[in-house]
From TrEMBL:
SUPFAM superfamilies: alpha/beta-Hydrolases (SSF53474). Residues 1-20 are annotated as: Disordered. InterPro entries: AB_hydrolase_1, AB_hydrolase_fold. Residues 93-340 form the AB hydrolase-1 domain. The chain crosses the membrane at residues 27-45. It comes from the Eukaryota. The keyword Hydrolase does not apply. The gene is A06p033890.1_BraROA. This is AB hydrolase-1 domain-containing protein. Keywords: Membrane, Transmembrane, Transmembrane helix.
Length: 366
């Protein structure tokens, strides 16, 4: 082949190639666009269509390994008992676990001293909240429904007309709903580092804004509504105070039961929990009138002044607006209060028998 001819051929090949390239890059662009659109639709569909739940006890789900009670609507709640035998106990406590957690995370078995269990005859029960562990999800869940679940659990176990509730973190947030919807069933309540829903309408905007600005700026846009839960989900160390870090290393990790907690899928466990916890509620705890005007039931709120999950400043504000709450602020404490050595005994004693250490300065002036 002569040189000229080869050049020509190359040229025409090149032009064909560039033509093809032009066409194919526009095809690729179209394809990408289509993928993006379909992908977004799929994402959107997924976002509005929860995945099929991996129902406990079904062929697609985990086996039932814990005792469960059946609720009126057919759902089951799995529970774990600890302490004095139920029928002989003097005090009965229902523990409400926090976000991304389960009944196995109840502090009582490990941190309530046996001496106190015996002395006061304390029975405790913890349960997997709907969608966690071995409790069925509740597609109709609301702040009110969880309080009614707790009442049904108490009745299913025969705990009698009145029982105590202790809730940590998001379990503390749920304790507010017990005070609102089932106060007549309570013998007492303790809220430990209770989560605050920034959408409660009476919260002063300047304090919520300030609390918000304490978040790392990079996180702020993503956290908007679920502050500071993306850090919580990720177990990011920035959310732990010094004392929390000690607790986490003592427990051998932030979430030792993670696989069990989310075994029904993240949608039914953590997503729905966040959705309900941070939706607009039918009530604002700041509007609650004293549920116990006879003073025969006491309500305690405990908060660490180094809590990085829930800002102490907001908690102080809430406590100051509700004079019927016994507010205990713990200096140097973080969020994971009941796992601190000795604190569960202290919290439990003050709830059940009203024993409180009176600060020395006040004792002296009294
Ligand atoms: C507190 O007093 C009210 C009103 O008398 C009563 O209905 C309720 O059962 C009492 N609660 C407890 C725990 O004793």
């Amino acid at each position: 082949m002569c040189r000229e001819g080869r050049d020509k051929k190359n040229k025409s090949e090149a032009s064909t190639r560039s033509h093809t390239q032009a066409r194919s890059s526009s095809d690729i662009f179209k394809t990408i666009l289509l993928v993006v659109i379909v992908g977004s639709l799929a994402w959107f569909y997924k976002a509005i269509q929860p995945p099929t739940p991996r129902t406990i006890g079904s062929t697609s789900g985990a086996a039932v390994t814990w005792p469960r009670i059946k609720l009126r609507d057919g759902r089951h709640l799995a529970y774990k008992e600890f302490g004095f035998p139920r029928d002989e106990a003097k005090f009965k406590i229902i523990y409400i676990h926090g976000f991304d957690s389960c009944k196995l995370d109840s502090p009582f078995p490990q941190f309530l001293s046996q001496a106190l269990v015996e002395e006061l005859r304390i029975y405790t029960v913890s349960f997997d909240r709907p969608g966690y562990g071995e409790s069925d999800p509740d597609p109709n869940r609301s702040p009110r429904s969880i309080a009614l679940d707790i009442e049904e659990l108490a009745d299913g176990l025969g705990l009698g007309p009145n029982f105590y509730v202790v809730g940590l973190s998001m379990g503390g947030e749920i304790t507010w709903t017990c005070l609102k919807y089932i106060p007549h069933r309570l013998a007492g309540a303790a809220l430990l580092g209770p989560v605050i829903n920034y959408w409660w309408r009476n919260l002063p905007r300047d304090i919520t804004r300030e609390a918000f600005s304490l978040t790392s700026p990079a996180d702020q846009w993503a956290l908007r509504k679920w502050f500071p839960f993306s850090n919580v989900i990720a177990g990011n160390p920035v959310i732990f105070s010094r004392q929390d870090m000690e607790v986490v290393s003592k427990l051998g990790g932030f979430r030792p039961n993670l696989a069990y907690i989310r075994q029904q899928g993240e949608y039914e466990s953590i997503h729905r929990d966040l959705k309900v916890g941070f939706s607009s509620w039918e009530f604002d705890p700041l509007d609650l009138e004293d549920p116990f005007p006879n003073n025969n039931v006491s309500v305690h709120l405990w908060h660490g002044d180094e809590d990085r999950f829930v800002p102490v400043k907001l908690q102080r504000y809430i406590a100051s607006k509700l004079p019927w709450i016994h507010y205990h602020e713990l200096s140097g404490s973080g969020h994971l209060l009941p796992y601190v050595e000795g604190l569960t005994d202290k919290i439990t004693k003050s709830l059940l028998v009203g024993e409180e250490e009176v600060p020395e300065s006040r004792e002296a002036s009294a």
